[in-house]
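Progress report, Aim 2. The chain analyzed during this reporting quarter is listed below.
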Amino acid sequence: MTTSSRFGIDFYFTEDEIYLDSATAGKVPVKSIKLVEEFYRDHGGGIGRGTHRKALQASRFIESQREIIAKIFSIDNAQLSFLPSREIAVLNSLFSLNLPKNQKIITSVLEDHSLLAPTIRYCEINKSELNYLNISDEENIAEAILKQVDSTTKTVILSALTLGMGAKRNWESISRICKENEITFILDVSYAVGHETFIFKDNIADIIISSGYNGALGPQGTAFQILSKEMLDKTMPLLVGGGSVISLEKQKFKLASGSGKFEPGALNAGAFAGLANSLQLLSDVGFENIKKHETKLRELLTKDLKDITNIEVIQQENIAQGPILSFMSKLVDAHDIAIILEDLSKIMVRSGALCSHLFMDEIQQDSLVQVSTHLYNTKEEIKIFTETLGSIMNEIK
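Predicted structure tokens for the chain:
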């Protein structure tokens, strides 16, 4: 295992490894990994569970990490909550709204399982209707949402960047439409955060959720939630217990205020320290610099793929694209392509249904190959990838 520096950030790589699967799990910076160890070595007490030195240190430590992330997104500390996964964040968010039964929720077939499965489960329990946007709606998604809105529409739940196709959305325009129509907007930024600037001070979705280990490059098992100030006071989480409870009687309990009421159980403070550090490192590089770098990688990737026979890139005209690109071959199985790429050139890509079965049904495919970049990828790596893929496909008779 060696370290490699990209934009001044050190990452662990095996020799000659080309990692193009950041949408599944990003590479964690070396310093962030070391901070996880540092917490458990030097602190390790229970957060909010005692008055001894270790407990107080742990509580102060997690609040310092909260402050780091809050500053990056231009929000108050109280708006940010730490959770173990975005699946929990989605379900917790939906149930915290306390909406009436028989409501309508708008989402899209482009969303992945982590967003859709909890939403489907919520609709089953709450007897609500789930309405789907399709690929053609992406060209003018704000107008498509308006066409579906009626008096029973209470929630829109969408991602800023979709997993299967890498469609990039203007979430600010969606947020404005939802506010004008008094609809709660839940925005998932898991695949877009860390790749571009997000300032949530003025125009903010009602609830923002994100995994910590995709674009944010934090450790796995981390996620976060950001609530607008209006939502912070009027929402009550489904999941409670542990440190989120400050008092309890036989028939009722009282939750902590602010972000604390959304943080049941024992927080993995070391992992969230790693997340905060990763986001700070990315912020120091400059999210716009990362965006420009990845735009160049995308342009090179798209250009070179056009010259490769027997593959088809999955994209739609007039839809903005982010740092996720998927393609298929009618002649070679997606898993076989991924295996050969790694065998020949140590290139790691994702293959399969990409946790996006509705999207796969929409394009009538069983599996795809997916390439997803981050700031640690280079033009040289993209050239090696496309040259290797070209060699593989040229062998097909």
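The chain has two domains: 2-28+286-394, 32-284. The chain has a mean pLDDT of 94. These observations will guide the mutagenesis work planned for the next reporting period.
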